[in-house]
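User: Some background: our group keeps a shared notebook of sequences we're curious about, and every so often someone picks one and asks for a predicted structure to add to the entry. Today it's my turn. The entry only has the sequence so far, pasted here. Could you supply the structure so I can complete it?
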Amino acid sequence: EAKQPIAGASVHLGLYGGGPQWAGAHRLSSVTLTDEGGRWRSPPLPVGQFTTNLDLSHPDYARTKISGSQTAGVEKGNAILTMQAGACLRGRVVDPEGRPVSGVRLALAREMADPGKDTTQTDGTGSFAFSRRLLGRRVLAVVPEGYAPQRIVVNMTTGMDDLEVKLDRGQPLRGRIVDRDGKPIEGVMVQRESGM
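Assistant: Of course. Here's the predicted structure to add to the notebook entry:
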């Protein structure tokens, strides 16, 4: 991000496709590390109509995925790939009395409507962590058993403070289902879609 070389970054190079001569070879891959100058070199690769995907990772930076037109120049050896500084969202989930709650599922997403595939759960002390994530606005979904779900907007920054999530017991929904004549109907399954 500051245009300084990053040593020790893992570069996972994935090739997909390859044309008729590579029928059945869905994926070829190689992993290498960058040197002190941030340079890397893959082993010899086959010639073919491949789609190139790159997955960059380093303990101090956010995981970066590059694909499609973004990889132009990789074959020529003149591509400059940029990694962003990573943010770590740490926190603790507690019940209404302030006691830690273990086993709570959490998901980190970009938008409110996004269910979020980046998930974790709290440990025995109620603690959780999302390490080396991209900076910017995110939505944290908290989905506990026996408590009301929550969505919290967080601004991912370097050196951000820990987050404490206090659960709420919420309010159950109750109702009665009847037919056209007002007679109760037994055995109807009612499901609430919360989007959480």
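Suggested note for the entry: The mean pLDDT is 84. Residues 44 and 166 are 54 Å apart (CA to CA).
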